């Protein structure tokens, strides 16, 4: 039988000390079944270019080796195709990998998933036409993404410190939104987030009721809150009770239209996005990508 084609796309900045070990182990263990190629990303967006080339070349499986940013770049090129996505989580948050039960400490489970090649059809979202697989939104989380952009912040402790520091200068964003084309609402918010999965990463759950296979987005809105409320909600994220806490509002939908002021930050899968539109739609694409789990 002809061997299946597999391409590893490695972000050399993520998991520098361990990605080579796990990739080499996978190649050694599965070389009789797969024809492997390995590429390293050289600039932002390079993973997307490499993945598109892989799809055009008829590659069966593309493995994203890195964090959620790398996964987004690679996965965005695979949506709507028969090429499967595999994840070797080497980042800090690893939100999508955690959601799919992919062990972020021992990547041998990723090798097992690669060996069996039994993909799961997973939903993804679109915001301004750009795919997201974890969450997107505006407000405090987007402000943190903006501050992280271009910095060397890595790891949970550094991320938590940056969040605590930003609380003292952050101002709520006034957002206009409508759900499924319905009534328009304008209000200030601390956060408005559309989630395809439960968590941001690190195990912090913004939408504990979200599912990657329900064909719906889980929208979370937090109105302006004080410092004490912020601390309580932060605890709620890690105890998976965030959606039950006051004054958090949640609902499910397939489409959300938002209008943001010029200065409002926006993130897709934790990466700050420089918007070209103030009014745009966020929607879900059910079962639009095949992922090995």
Q: Would you spell out the secondary-structure blueprint of this structure?
A:
Layout: E1 4-10, H1 19-30, E2 34-40, H2 46-56, E3 61-66, H3 68-78, E4 84-89, H4 95-99, H5 108-116, E5 119-127, E6 130-132, E7 135-139, H6 140-148, H7 156-166, E8 173-179, E9 184-189, E10 191-195, E11 199-201, E12 204-205, E13 217-222, H8 227-238, E14 249-253, E15 255-259, E16 267-268, E17 271-272, E18 279-292
Parallel strand pairs: 1-2, 1-3, 3-4
Antiparallel strand pairs: 5-6, 5-18, 7-10, 7-16, 8-9, 8-15, 10-13, 11-12, 13-14, 15-18, 16-17
Notes on the structure:
The chain is of the alpha+beta class and 293 residues long. Helix content is 27%, strand content 34%. The chain has helices at 19-30, 46-56, 68-78, 95-99, 108-116, 140-148, 156-166, 227-238; strands spanning 4-10, 34-40, 61-66, 84-89, 119-127, 130-132, 135-139, 173-179, 184-189, 191-195, 199-201, 204-205, 217-222, 249-253, 255-259, 267-268, 271-272, 279-292. It has a 6-stranded antiparallel sheet. The chain has a 6-stranded antiparallel sheet with strand order 14-13-10-7-16-17, with helices on one face. A hairpin with a 2-residue loop joins strand 5 and strand 6. The two termini are 24 Å apart.
Summarize the structure.
With 293 residues, the chain is an alpha+beta fold.
List keywords for this structure.
single chain; 6-stranded antiparallel beta sheet; alpha+beta; 34% strand; 293 residues
Number of strands: 18
Order of helices and strands: EHEHEHEHHEEEHHEEEEEEHEEEEE
The residue fraction in helices comes out at: 25-40%
What Rg do the Cα atoms give?
19 Å
Determine the number of helices (DSSP H or I, runs of at least 4 residues): 8
**Order of strands across the main sheet:** 6-5-18-15-8-9
Helical/strand content category: alpha+beta
Q: How far apart, in Å, are the first and last alpha carbons?
A: 24 Å
* Mean pLDDT value: 91
Strand content: 25-35%
- Poorly predicted parts: none
Global outline: globular
């Amino acid at each position: 039988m002809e061997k299946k084609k597999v391409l590893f796309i490695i972000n050399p900045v993520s998991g520098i000390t361990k990605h080579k070990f796990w990739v080499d182990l996978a190649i050694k263990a599965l070389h009789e079944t797969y024809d492997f190629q390995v590429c390293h990303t050289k600039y932002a967006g390079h993973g997307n270019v490499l993945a598109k080339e892989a799809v055009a070349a008829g590659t069966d499986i593309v493995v994203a080796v890195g964090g959620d940013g790398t996964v987004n770049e690679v996965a965005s090129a695979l949506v709507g195709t028969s090429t499967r996505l595999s994840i070797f989580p080497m980042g800090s948050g690893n939100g999508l990998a955690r959601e799919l039960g992919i062990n972020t400490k021992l990547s041998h489970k990723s090798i097992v998933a690669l060996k069996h090649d039994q993909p799961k059809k997973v939903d993804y979202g679109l915001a301004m036409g750009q795919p997201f697989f974890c969450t997107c939104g505006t407000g405090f989380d987007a402000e943190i993404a903006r501050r992280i952009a271009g910095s060397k912040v890595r790891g949970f402790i550094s991320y938590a410190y940056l969040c605590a520091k930003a609380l003292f200068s952050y101002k709520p964003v006034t957002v206009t939104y409508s759900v499924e084309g319905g009534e328009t609402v304008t209000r200030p918010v601390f956060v408005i987030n559309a989630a395809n999965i439960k968590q941001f990463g690190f195990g912090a759950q913004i939408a504990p009721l979200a599912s990657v296979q329900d064909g719906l987005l889980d929208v979370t809105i937090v109105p302006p809150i004080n410092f004490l409320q912020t601390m309580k909600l932060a605890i709620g994220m890690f105890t998976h009770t965030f959606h039950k806490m006051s004054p958090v509002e949640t609902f499910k939908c397939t489409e959300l239209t938002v209008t943001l002021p010029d200065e409002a930050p926006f993130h897709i899968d934790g990466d700050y996005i420089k918007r070209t539109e103030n009014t745009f739609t966020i929607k879900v694409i059910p079962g639009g990508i095949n992922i090995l789990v």
